[in-house]
Amino acid sequence: MDKTIGQATISVDQEGYLTDFSQWNKEIGTEIAKEQGIDMTDKHWEVIDYIQQQFKNEEPLSIRGIKKSGVLDIKEFYALFPGGPLKKATMIAGIPKPKSCI
Amino acid sequence: MKNLVILGAGTAGTMMSNHLVSKLPKNEWQITVVDQYKTHYYQPGFLFLPFDIYTTKQVKKKGAKFIPKGVNYINEKIEIIKPEENKVLLDDGTELHYDILIIATGTKIAPEEIEGMKGPEWHKSVFDFYTYEGAKALRDKFREWEGGKLVVHITEMPIKCPVAPLEFAFLADSYFKNKGMRDKVDITFVTPLGGAFTKPKATEALHHLLTDKGIKEVTDFNIERVDYENNKIIDYAETEVPYDILVTVPTNMGDALIERSGMGDDLNYVPTNKATLQTEDYENIFALGDATNLPASKAGSVAHFEAEILTENILRYIKGEPLKEEFDGHANCFIETGGGKALLIDFNYTHEPVEGTFPFPGVGPLNLLKESRTNHMGKMAFRWIYWNMLIKGIHIPFVSATMSEKGKKFEDSKA
């Protein structure tokens, strides 16, 4: 389905995750973050950048992976994206919700 | 003489040795199986041991009984795989050369990954039921327990048999009811997932069962540590869940051998082609069962379906033919729901479990995603099938290695 965010129209799934990463840009990420009650800082963007890199390399995302990322530890990850950090961060990053699989 | 070496004599390795012994010409190929343990455990039985449904004798047998004649069976710890030299080094210094290697070293629990889990309370008030020792310790604890808070917990995904923790919660409900003390036991199911299971339709069905049985759910719980002094588990968001008995499924990891050999991912699982079962890095090394990084369930049924396909691919590899890209992630699991009933789910990489009948479309006799007594009979019969057919590599009639879409109620749902 389509969703209007700021000036742009993006397509998202039922939960609000972008279905086409090519539609993503920083403004859209900022708006989605606001909806989640998050004000983006440089540290937030550093994490989003890491997550998008992982996605592009087809590396699975997990809490364990964050621990090994060298970008931040899990406590900081929770502090930046309170509640469900992986779910929120992937939504802001414009990539699919990670499947804990199987 | 050429050598085919199988590492691990669990469900997958034993099945492969049975399949291959009848397929490879004996005057050309020597098959060797290596495993450090002499006992073969019926792992699905660990679920029933704590509730006195199975005895210890029903879940273990001598491994040698199931390795076919003509196969060289070595009971020794494996030190390292040297894939560049086509060699496996054993603990006693023996060097095995291979032309083809099959890795079937499975997955193990790693409770030491979480602070406080494998502490002084391990197997006293903090238990696992994924090992024989853990399941037995829990049985002894339950026999004398007078009630309190029972927490059933999953540490992180992926885990072997993802439905087992749920079955554990259902069976606990039933067990304490039968003992006439259900009112004294408070059961909570704690998971890092957003719901009871990994697939949407099954999650819905299982959520209702949990509610019906008065089992509480705590979801999205990513454990940071076990505070064994104050009897609570704490997650990264500072959520706390108190317990009197904690039954946890610790982090699951591939064998340390894989790490020593530099052949695994973060969790020591071997990167493997999900359709052919050839490892990504070495063309004469194959892997199956829980040891792989496949996005399929870590379950005996999956190893069973993989074994049929891998046998064919090994034969093709020997003949120099292209491998068949056939494995579809097929899994078939009974889910015990307590009170003599069970559910059955059948799914693969792309299709989530839905309602329907199995194995005959429209007939059954088994019901998919619905509780029934017949399903429970199926699960109980499976122990016999396991020891007498499955690990001996005898094909189970009407159950194919790839998933059938017939007799199932698919909407446009995808896993």
Task: Describe the 3D structure.
The complex is a heterodimer of chains A (102) and B (415). Chain A has 102 residues and is mainly alpha-helical. Chain A has helices spanning 26-35, 42-56, 63-69, 74-80, 85-93; strands spanning 2-5, 8-11. Chain A has one domain (2-93). By secondary structure, chain B is an alpha/beta fold. Chain B folds into three domains: 2-106 and 255-319, FAD/NAD(P)-binding domain, CATH 3.50.50; 110-252, FAD/NAD(P)-binding domain (3-Layer(bba) Sandwich), CATH 3.50.50.60; 328-415, no CATH class. In chain B, helix 1 packs parallel to helix 6. The model of chain B has no long low-confidence stretch (mean pLDDT 94).
Brief descriptors of the model:
heterodimer; A: 102 residues; mainly alpha; two-stranded antiparallel sheet; 47% helix; B: 415 residues; alpha/beta; FAD/NAD(P)-binding domain; 3 domains; 5-stranded parallel sheet; 7 helices; 23% helix
Brief digest:
The complex is a heterodimer of chains A (102) and B (415). Chain A is mostly helical.
Task: Please report the first level of CATH classification, the CATH class of the largest domain in chain B.
Answer: Alpha Beta
> For the report, how would you describe the main beta sheet of chain A?
2 strands, antiparallel
Assembly classification: heterodimer
Q: Terminal Cα separation of chain B, in Å?
A: 46 Å
Query: What share of the residues of chain A does DSSP label as strand, in percent?
Result: 5-15%
What would CATH call the homologous superfamily of the largest domain in chain B? Answer: FAD/NAD(P)-binding domain
Q: Tell me the domain tally of chain B.
A: 3
Shape of chain B: globular
Number of separate structural domains of chain A: 1
Low-confidence stretches of chain B: none
- Pair with the most extensive interface? A-B, 17 and 19 residues
Q: What is the residue-mean pLDDT of chain A, rounded to a whole number?
A: 88
**What is the CATH topology of the largest domain in chain B?**
FAD/NAD(P)-binding domain
User: What is the H-and-E element order of chain A?
Assistant: EEHHHHH
Q: What is the CA-CA span between the terminal residues of chain A?
A: 27 Å
Q: What spatial order of strands do you see in the largest sheet of chain B? A: 5-2-1-9-20
Decide which structural class fits the backbone of chain B: alpha/beta
Question: Uncertain spans of chain A, ≥5 residues at pLDDT below 50?
Answer: none
Give the tally of β-strands of chain A.
Answer: 2
